[in-house]
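Annex B. Sample input.
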Amino acid sequence: MSESPVQPRTTWEYCLSAADELTRIQAPADAARHAQTVVLLACVIAAGADGAGLTGTQVADLPMDGTGGALDMLQVAARLSVRAAEAPPGLGGEQRAELLAADREDFAAVQALAEDVLRVHLAAAPPGGVPTVRVCVRTAARRRTLHRAAQALGATEED
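Annex B, continued. Sample output.
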């Protein structure tokens, strides 16, 4: 969503930042759909974090999988998570409103994109235990750095 390196201050901003990082590797080509996917992921991370009593930087400790984890919240309580989120204008509020107004088909399309994002991160997570949002965000950042380095060197995926 945002390219500025502003430090998150609120629990919502931490959720939005984590969702943005998770989505960067496989962002939908359509900017509006990308923004909706980020906000939907932020909403489910926020709902999972709230259920686990995690606030501020602690939202990064939310498991990505398992009961109450990010993927579980996305699959079983996505719309409720969007309704419960307190996304202010300029920080996902507009996309939250779009998601709330979306019909089932449009909402399901964004939900499917968000699920694809989480599944990619779960598949790339180090073995052993259930990865957290923090682990997946760090892994995503390393993968982006390696991808940019390969591009700078002129390496292709075939190399």
